[in-house]
Write a structure and sequence with these properties.
- This protein has 16 helices and eleven strands.
- The protein has 453 residues and is mainly alpha-helical.
């Protein structure tokens, strides 16, 4: 039963949902259509299509209105629209100017200079203009023991380790136009991407992407104290583009080689370095794939940095061989019986088809009971016209339940004998794993929730 179709279906969702309802014999009642949905009624089908389009249109209108309402205070008044303050600023600017709100504890949310961090930001811009690269700046700050943003304000960076400056942190600071003193809104936007381009019905997933320059809103007047002048910020942006262009030109001038397809890391996010507790990052070389943990990104002078080797490398194929041998022991002769029994028991859950059949038979019994009750009412002298619609609905429900029962197919479950035959057909499980597709092997390690220290 759908109370309001425009609040239930979005876009083409109804056309993707109704076939499944019809497949399992589920009837759909919509008051705006005057009763039950009839798939053979062209008016009904057209009405549901229009309802989905109206719902999608309303959602897009709401999104545009919200963005406009958020952008206007930024453009006119330079208001800070919330979120974490950029490194170099603090959000709290004193009690709220409204006396009543000030008594209730409200604070004025305006960006103010952080006396400790602001000079660091200014120095980062100066070092970059002096010719230093992103990694060189990060290493210099780590050598001097300057706390990184997550270590400087741990309360608003609980999701980060605070273990030193990274080149990505330096780049994020150099890219942030808020340091010029102007309020900025809309640098990032939500983008809906298809989960599977080959299966549009699978739906979308929301990603954050950089907005186009035309969609970024900047206040007309300076809204908070500047750390970097507009001229210096612009020079840095041109310098970054020039360096990216030179590196791309250098790569383009090298002899072209055959394109190599990107292959997944087998242990992506699964390996931690015991000395520092950080996850090791993947690094491909011409002859092999490695996972590494470098000490240069640690805060110098700490016990962890002193005891940490300069760089720790772990070769992927050496580790994968040991892991595959470890997994293949499940299929060794002494463990095979237990493994087959566990795999067979994994199918021990109730058959979905059996549960659906029980539900359909309950609906069938209820419909037949209603029909018998109405027949007795007719024999007792009730007005046939008053009972016709109820009887027809019961008949339709009975037919839907019978169609659902006829459409059910029992799920084929593997027996222990069939599982053992499959294992025997595969042969040497260690060889099967060593020669498996990298994508499948990565999925297997992920499904096993494999963790390596």
């Amino acid at each position: 039963m759908v109370g309001e179709a425009t609040r239930c279906w979005f876009g083409n969702q109804f056309s993707l949902t109704w076939p499944r309802f019809d497949r399992y014999g589920v009837s759909l009642w919509i008051p705006s259509l005057g009763g039950r949905f009839d798939p053979e009624n062209t008016v009904h089908d057209m009405a549901m299509t229009i309802s989905g389009g109206l719902s999608k249109s309303e959602r897009q209108h709401v999104q545009r209105r919200v963005r406009a309402a958020m952008a206007a205070p930024v453009l006119i008044d330079g208001k800070h629209q919330g979120g974490r303050a950029p490194y170099g600023y603090v959000v709290d600017a004193g009690p709220h100017p409204n006396p009543r709100k000030a008594q209730e504890g409200y604070r004025l949310r305006v960006l103010a200079l952080d006396e400790v961090a602001a000079p660091v930001v200014e120095r980062i811009f100066a070092m970059y203009l002096a010719g230093l690269g992103l990694k060189a700046i990060a290493e210099q700050l780590n050598r001097e023991g300057v706390p990184c943003p997550s270590a400087h304000t741990p309360r608003q960076n609980r999701h980060r380790a605070g273990d030193g400056w990274q080149h990505s942190t330096v780049k994020a600071i150099l890219d942030n136009p808020r340091y010029t003193g102007y309020a900025i809104y809309g640098r990032w936007q939500k983008v809906e991407e298809l989960l599977d381009p080959d299966d549009v019905a699978a739906g979308h997933v929301v990603r954050f992407r950089r907005s186009a320059q035309s969609k970024i809103v900047r206040s007309r007047e300076p809204a908070h104290p500047e750390i970097i002048s507009v001229e210096d910020f612009t020079r840095v942006q041109f310098e970054m583009r020039a360096r990216r262009g030179s590196s791309m030109s250098a790569r383009a001038s090298q002899p072209r080689t055959r394109a190599v397809a990107r292959v997944p890391y087998l242990f992506r996010g699964a390996i931690s370095h015991e000395s520092c507790g950080r996850k090791m990052e993947g690094a491909r070389r011409k002859h092999a794939t490695f996972y590494r943990c470098a000490a240069r990104t640690l805060v110098p002078g700490t016990l962890t940095a002193v005891e940490h080797p300069p760089t720790v490398y772990l070769r992927e194929d050496h580790l994968a061989g040991g892991v595959n041998e470890w997994i293949s022991r499940l299929f060794s002769p002494e463990n095979l019986d237990e493994t087959v029994a566990i795999l067979a028991d994994a199918h021990g859950e109730p058959d979905p088809a059996e549960a659906a059949e029980v539900a359909f038979r309950q609906r069938l019994a209820a419909a037949e009971s209603t029909m018998r009750r109405l027949q007795k009412a007719l024999e007792a002298g009730w007005d046939p016209e008053a009972l016709t619609s109820q009887y027809n609905a019961a008949v339709a429900e009975k037919r839907a339940a019978e169609a659902g029962i006829d459409s059910l197919q029992p799920t084929a479950l593997l027996t222990s004998t069939e599982i053992r035959a499959m294992v025997d057909e595969l042969g040497d499980m260690k060889l099967v794993l060593d020669t498996a597709d990298r994508g499948d092997l990565a999925d297997l390690y992920d499904a096993l929730r494999l963790k390596v220290s």
